[in-house]
């Protein structure tokens, strides 16, 4: 019996009991849908789709995929935008950390982090598109007095062929995520003391950080970086709004084929989804090889011993520019949405609408309010379930005194690395087979797949960083293992738990494809409504939904800051 | 399959499976309305237009008041999503109480669903308000040449018009050739939604009809014609047009409303629309500058009808029929034609209407940018759906993958 085996070891490790069931259960909830969904996509990729009267296995779907003339360009776009966005976001965050961590400017950005994280991708992309278009807000503010433009110039900025607008959007939105992950890693990497040694040895700020701290940090944020890479390569909503369309990146084309009235196109879509999965895997391998190469070069660079003090002059401003770009792009985008939601007619080149009114809010407010209810309900249930499962897992890990292995960590990240479009259509069919035709329950299950890993990731480190001697003291005073959990550990970790819950809610609020496919369209959340409206291009309506969506995702982060402050207003030691 | 079987009784006990299979004869209207009472109808309809969304909400209020039917508008970004949904349900054996009760549909989507036996019917011609429908004057019994056979009920007429900004363009353009000449003189000021978007493909069909001498070949499946020979003038035309399009044809607006927004942003001066009242409605809603007007081509423009259809596995077929009937009512049709609300053409025949309703239609102010029925001129019939599909594919190969 494992329980006996553990208690034989003696020491403070308590018996596992019921919590032993949590890790396998969590894996099932998280990976079961992914595996089943992949199988459900794999079969149509080889020609098996009985509902359309197609049940002979063949390679025809792949042949028709190869016949598509846009395949080369679409594949190239997926890979190039994904790699470029990931590399730029990582480089920008690294520069920011290297040049500014510990300074006041850095703390300002840190404080902006939660709002930046909580803005949904679609809302940000839409705002950014309006910001940078030739007829957009920046051009309007400068026209005609500075640019001489009486009419918007015919310039390809948004939807450009190289996907640079899309890369900019992804970088702006992924930087806050990597920064959050980096901040969590900083504490464990003992960055402050490493920097002190480096600076005492005469290294410049940036060079010292890159040489002494970065290797330790990168080892910890490697998996989040892989998530960014997989996400950027297969994103649909951002690509639709900012990316090229002649042809679009592969993921967008998969969605188009899925929606084609010719039912046989579903087979091509499934084959393309499998190609998308293969591309992501290949890009991850390529990235891994790049890591190895950078490590080799870096070692040689470190060994040369250059102090790199002159580089600070250039690299530090560059870092702050990158940070400001992310913050301005995201917040500026949301400002665009807010202004549009109150706008009367707003033609080029007026810097502001010729009138403000409440018409859009009066028109869409009631429906947006309804959708807010559904959004909050789903996010609340999914987050609560995920918290219970994650805390159960972490507690089991602690009681067995077995840290999560590298393989285990990979499993946690798996749902985030597999492209959504590769397994969600298959998952939909599976739900139907089990009689879950539509409604809130399948949506919650689908959201749980994505909410769980994020909660696991954001709560794991603070949970493990908890001082175990506190538990030993409590045990010595006669508290049971459950008593330690409920009365000592959970209250002490209230702040990270609430932050994890806020992350979970933000993730749930942002989900588009899972909600659409699992909910059978019957579940209208703010995000499904906003993306449906985005296809129509009514900026006022999108403004209302985008602002509502952002608020719903932002309120929990504010609560995560306020509740512990209120709870511990007379416990100074808890404010650490 | 064992786990599935063992789960089913449990789900049934929890009340999660569908109510018993029910189906009422559409001709027995009293029985239909009785069964519809209390049903919830999920209408899957494109949700990209706020004017349409508001109209659907209004129809929902009517259905609730008059027949106790709750209407939920499921806003799609693509009608194909609803087709996928019904298909997935059939694949999984969910043959009753599917997620979709009513679909706004026409053209290739209808042809695909009808051919795959995914539709309930015939029902449309048994609905009480069918008596007012203009079966002789409007294409309400064929959908892109495919006979509807009562499997879908018409609710709006559409006809191609071109919107133009009178501040930038002096006079209407009478033909496809004139559009090309103007575009070459004003590069970057015209575009169309990217095929296979519905409206973008419509532009291609409209241009094809303009350029082809003998249109009868288009009413039969394209496989019966020499596709390359018939469409050659279209590709020559587009080869000349594309370099002078907005962004030199390297990017296109995704949809009709996105194209409308480009016009409001002063990026383009000329745009196609499939709704004669759309410009007036957009002006009333602050979405378009007041200087926009519309025109049709001299040889007439394409027209077709929008329909609603009921999937074979809807659990609320009676409720769906009540909604379909309400959509064809004179009151709803009048409201739909009002440019301040929707600006869609009616499917009804004026001479069949009661006197009071006819007067109300005649009194309707169609809006500043809307042409009168006489000005709209001849309606050209839609080509067979196979043309739309093939032209869309061919366009993608020629212009959709320019990289």
Rg of chain A from C-alpha positions?
A: 25 Å
**What's the N-to-C terminus distance of chain B?**
48 Å
The CATH superfamily of the largest domain in chain B is identified as Periplasmic binding protein-like II
Number of helical segments with 4 or more residues of chain A:
25
Which two chains have the most extensive interface, and how many residues on each? A-B, 70 and 82 residues
Strand coverage percent of chain B: 5-15%
Count of spatially separate domains of chain B: 2
Shape of chain A: globular
The residue-averaged pLDDT of chain A reads 86
Return the CATH topology of the largest domain in chain B: D-Maltodextrin-Binding Protein, domain 2
* Share of helix of chain A, binned: over 70%
Largest sheet of chain B: 6 strands, mixed
Structure report:
- Chain B: Residues 1-22 form the signal peptide.
- Chain B: This is Putative thiamine transport system substrate-binding protein.
- The complex is a heterodimer of chains A (576) and B (403).
- By secondary structure, chain A is mostly helical.
- Chain A has helices spanning 2-8, 22-45, 60-67, 71-100, 104-118, 121-132, 137-142, 164-188, 191-200, 205-212, 214-234, 237-242, 250-258, 265-304, 311-341, 359-399, 406-417, 420-433, 440-465, 468-476, 481-492, 494-510, 513-518, 526-536, 539-567, and strands spanning 48-49, 54-55.
- In chain A, strands 1-2 form a two-stranded antiparallel ribbon.
- Chain B is built from 15 helices and eleven strands.
- By secondary structure, chain B is an alpha/beta fold.
- Chain B has two domains: 25-151 and 307-363, 3-Layer(aba) Sandwich (D-Maltodextrin-Binding Protein, domain 2), CATH 3.40.190.10; 161-303 and 378-400, 3-Layer(aba) Sandwich (D-Maltodextrin-Binding Protein, domain 2), CATH 3.40.190.10.
- The interface between A and B is large, with 70 and 82 residues.
């Amino acid at each position: 019996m494992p329980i006996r085996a553990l208690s034989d070891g003696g020491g403070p490790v308590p018996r596992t009991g019921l919590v032993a069931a949590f890790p396998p259960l969590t894996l099932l909830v998280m990976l079961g849908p992914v595996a089943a969904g992949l199988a459900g996509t794999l079969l149509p990729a080889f020609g098996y789709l009985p509902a359309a009267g197609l049940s002979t296995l063949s390679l025809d779907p792949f042949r028709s995929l190869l016949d598509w003339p846009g395949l080369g360009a679409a594949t190239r776009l997926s890979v190039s935008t994904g790699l470029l966005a990931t590399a730029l976001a990582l480089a920008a965050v690294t520069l920011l950390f290297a040049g500014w961590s510990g300074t006041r400017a850095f703390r300002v950005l840190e404080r902006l982090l939660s709002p930046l994280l909580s803005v949904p991708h679609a809302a940000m992309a839409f705002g950014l598109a309006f910001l940078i278009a030739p007829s957009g807000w920046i051009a309007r503010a400068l026209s005609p007095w500075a640019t001489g433009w009486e009419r918007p110039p015919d310039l390809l900025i948004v939807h450009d062929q190289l996907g640079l607008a899309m890369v900019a959007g992804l970088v702006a939105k992924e930087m806050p995520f990597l920064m959050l992950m980096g901040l969590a890693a900083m504490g464990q990497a003992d960055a402050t003391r490493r920097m002190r040694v480096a600076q005492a040895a005469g290294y410049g700020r940036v060079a010292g950080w890159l040489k002494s701290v970065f290797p330790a940090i990168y080892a910890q944020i490697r998996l989040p970086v892989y998530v960014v890479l997989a996400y950027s390569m297969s994103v649909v909503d951002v690509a639709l709004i900012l990316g090229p369309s002649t042809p679009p990146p592969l993921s967008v084309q998969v969605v188009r084929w899925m929606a084609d009235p010719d039912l046989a196109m579903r087979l091509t879509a499934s084959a393309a989804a499998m190609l998308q999965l293969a591309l992501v895997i290949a890009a991850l391998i390529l990235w891994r090889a790049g890591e190895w190469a950078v490590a080799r070069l870096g070692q040689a660079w470190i060994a040369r011993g250059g102090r790199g003090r002159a580089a600070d002059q250039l690299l530090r401003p560059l870092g702050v520019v990158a940070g400001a770009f992310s913050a301005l792009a995201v917040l500026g985008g949301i400002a665009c949405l807010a202004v549009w939601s109150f706008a009367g007619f707003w033609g080029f080149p007026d810097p502001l609408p010729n009138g403000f009114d409440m018409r859009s809010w009066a028109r869409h407010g009631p429906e947006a309010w309804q959708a807010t209810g559904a959004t909050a309900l789903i996010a609340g249930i999914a987050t609560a379930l995920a918290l219970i499962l994650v805390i159960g897992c972490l507690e089991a890990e602690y009681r067995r005194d077995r840290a999560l292995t590298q393989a285990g960590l990979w499993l946690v990240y798996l749902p985030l690395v597999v492209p959504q479009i590769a397994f969600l259509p298959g998952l939909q069919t599976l739900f139907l087979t089990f009689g879950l035709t539509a409604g809130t329950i399948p949506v919650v299950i689908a959201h749980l797949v994505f909410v769980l890993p994020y909660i696991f990731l954001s709560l794991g480190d603070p949970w493990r960083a908890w001082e175990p001697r506190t538990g030993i003291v409590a045990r010595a005073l006669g508290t049971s293992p459950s008593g330690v959990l409920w009365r000592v550990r959970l209250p002490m970790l209230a702040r990270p738990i609430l932050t994890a819950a806020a992350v979970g809610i933000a993730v749930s609020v942002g989900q588009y494809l899972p909600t659409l496919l699992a909910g059978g369209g019957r579940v209208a959340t703010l995000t499904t409504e906003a993306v449906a409206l985005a296809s129509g291009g009514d900026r006022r309506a999108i403004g209302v939904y985008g602002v509502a969506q952002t608020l719903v995702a932002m309120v929990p982060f504010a609560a995560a800051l306020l509740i512990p402050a209120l709870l511990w207003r007379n416990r100074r030691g808890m404010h650490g | 399959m064992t786990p599935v079987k063992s789960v089913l009784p449990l789900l049934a006990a929890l009340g999660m499976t569908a109510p018993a299979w029910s189906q009422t004869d559409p001709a027995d209207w009293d029985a239909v309305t009785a069964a519809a009472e209390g049903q919830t109808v999920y209408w899957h309809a494109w949700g990209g237009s706020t004017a349409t969304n508001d109209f659907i909400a209004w129809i929902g209020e009517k259905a609730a008041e008059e027949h106790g039917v709750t209407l939920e508008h499921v806003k799609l970004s693509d009608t194909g999503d609803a087709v996928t949904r019904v298909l997935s349900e059939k694949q999984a054996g969910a043959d009753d109480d599917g997620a979709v009760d009513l679909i706004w549909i026409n053209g290739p989507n209808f042809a695909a669903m009808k051919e795959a036996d995914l539709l309930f019917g015939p029902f449309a011609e048994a609905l009480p308000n069918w008596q007012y429908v203009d079966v002789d004057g409007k294409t309400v019994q064929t959908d892109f040449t495919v006979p509807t056979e009562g499997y879908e009920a018409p609710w709006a007429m559409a006809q191609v018009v071109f919107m133009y900004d009178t501040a930038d363009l002096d006079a209407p353009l009478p033909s496809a050739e004139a559009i090309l000449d103007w575009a070459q003189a004003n590069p970057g000021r015209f575009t169309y939604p990217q095929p296979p978007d519905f409206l973008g493909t419509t532009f291609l069909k409209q241009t094809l009809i303009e350029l082809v001498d003998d249109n009868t070949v288009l009413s039969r499946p394209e496989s019966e014609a020499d596709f390359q020979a018939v469409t050659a003038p279209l590709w020559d035309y587009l080869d000349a047009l594309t370099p002078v399009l907005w962004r030199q044809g390297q990017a296109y607006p995704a949809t009709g409303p996105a194209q409308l927004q480009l016009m409001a942003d002063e990026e383009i001066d000329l745009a196609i629309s499939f709704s004669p009242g759309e410009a007036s409605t957009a002006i009333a809603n602050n979405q378009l500058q007041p200087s926009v007007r519309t025109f049709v081509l001299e040889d007439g423009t394409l027209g077709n009808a929008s329909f609603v259809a009921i999937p074979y596995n809807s659990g609320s077929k009676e409720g769906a029929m009540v909604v379909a009937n309400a959509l064809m009512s004179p009151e709803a049709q009048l409201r739909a034609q009002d440019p301040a609300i929707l600006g869609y053409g009616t499917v009804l025949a004026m001479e069949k209407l009661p006197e009071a309703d006819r007067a109300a239609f005649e009194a309707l102010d169609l809006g500043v940018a809307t042409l009168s029925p006489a000005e709209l001129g001849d309606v050209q019939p839609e080509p067979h759906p196979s043309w739309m599909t093939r032209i869309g594919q061919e366009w993608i190969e020629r212009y959709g993958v320019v990289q």
